[in-house]
């Protein structure tokens, strides 16, 4: 997978042995995984298994601050199961709580969206979240996604709670418009 770079961040491939400890450190708590729909990790071995079975399989990037090797978050795509017949992907992300509120995920996601439209030539990128995830909703808004609607009782969380799913998307032409607008501002 291609390593991506932003002003403050490096997005690179996960390494099961080297990165499992860092992942476990932030994924064991109650606020990261559950907000993203997955259970807190139980051990370093559990984190290592998820790097192998989830991150590497789907091509999910590790997020690190430049100059530091530590894994502080993840970002990447899954297949958009509502749009199987086109060049589409669904974005997902999570970040160590220690680093919240510094604009890190918005910065990472902007570069991943650039990669998606410019290099993967996708037609549409979607993202979903739950109404209670105010932070992610704000990131989605800052990125410029368009709200499509809410699937009532759209998902069951890992611990059996049923939640609504708020759906957003960005079309290629919308991304191109934002890009031309931003380069005019620069
Ligand atoms: C969602 C998440 C990735 C955000 O990462 P981040 O780097 O903190 O995001 P940013 O700093 O780029 O933006 C967060 C925004 O939310 C705002 N925010 C923080 N707490 C908030 C709250 N309680 N209500 C509303 N907005 C809030 C911040 O002020 C910021 O907006 P601003 O730039 O206008 O000030 C991170 O909180 C996380 O990993 N959460 C757990 C996993 C998760 O929810 N994943 C997404 C699943 S859809």
Based on Cα principal axes, name the global outline: globular
**CATH topological fold name:** Aminopeptidase
Report helical residue fraction.
25-40%
For the record, give the distance between the C-alpha atoms at the N and C termini, rounded to a whole number. 30 Å
Question: Going across the major beta sheet, what is the strand order?
Answer: 1-2-3-4-5-6-8-7
Number of strands: 8
Summarize model confidence as the mean pLDDT: 96
Task: Provide the descriptors you would attach to this structure in a database record.
186 residues, alpha+beta, Aminopeptidase, 28% strand, binds coenzyme A
Could you characterize the architecture of this molecule?
This protein is α+β, with helices and mostly antiparallel strands. Helices cover 38% and strands 28% of the residues. Strand 3 and strand 4 form a beta hairpin. Helix 1 crosses helix 3 and helix 4 crosses helix 5. The relative contact order is 0.14. It binds coenzyme A. Coenzyme A (COA) binds next to helix 2, strand 5, helix 4 and helix 5. The site of coenzyme A (COA) has 20 residues, from helix 2, strand 5, helix 4 and helix 5.
């Amino acid at each position: 997978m291609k390593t991506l770079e932003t002003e403050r961040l490096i997005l690179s491939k996960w390494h099961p042995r080297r990165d499992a400890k860092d992942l476990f450190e932030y994924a064991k708590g109650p606020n990261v995984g559950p907000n993203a729909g997955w259970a807190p990790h139980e051990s370093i071995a559990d984190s290592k298994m998820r790097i192998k079975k989830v991150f590497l399989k789907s091509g999910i990037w590790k997020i690190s601050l430049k100059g530091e090797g530590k894994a502080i978050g993840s970002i990447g795509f899954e297949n958009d199961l509502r749009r199987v017949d086109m060049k589409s992907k669904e974005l997902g992300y999570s970040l160590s709580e220690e680093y919240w509120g510094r604009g890190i995920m918005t910065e990472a996601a902007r570069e991943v969206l650039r990669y998606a439209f410019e290099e993967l030539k996708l037609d549409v990128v979607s993202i979903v979240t739950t109404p209670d995830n105010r932070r992610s909703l704000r990131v989605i808004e800052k990125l410029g996604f368009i709200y499509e609607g809410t699937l009532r009782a759209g998902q069951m969380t890992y611990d059996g709670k049923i939640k609504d799913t708020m759906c957003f998307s960005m079309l290629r032409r919308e991304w191109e418009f934002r890009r031309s607008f931003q380069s005019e501002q620069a």
